[in-house]
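Side project, low priority. Logging it here so it doesn't get lost.
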Amino acid sequence: MENKYKAMAKEYFAQRNLKYNDLDDNLMSLAFTMDNIKDLHIFVVFEGEEDSRPFFLSRGIVSFPEEKTLNALLLVNKLNNQFRWTKFYLDDDGDITIRMDAIVSDESAGEEIWELIIRMSRIIDEAYPEMMKTRFA
């Protein structure tokens, strides 16, 4: 059964002609072209029960080779201090992944989910030049 918050998001997106990919009962994705990053994908994950609240995820923004792991870890620590709404981390493949957790209300979940997606995309776009600078330094 589809998550109720996902259904609210889909209704909100449909009313505003916002494009998204409906991947399964617990997952949707949206693609953006931003100022600094041209191919940004944000996933909205509705995990667990049908009334569980979503979290937001963007993976593989920048990949770091093993020899730059220390630089990447220092960078994600800096970004975590700079941007309070998101959590940056380095996954086992050396990719920077960004996650945002949220509590949305039953009354305005669709709008809140959209606002959180926009907030996350802007944060990623702002952080992207520093990620690239660190990767290629």
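Brief comment: The chain has three helices and six strands.
Revisit when time allows.
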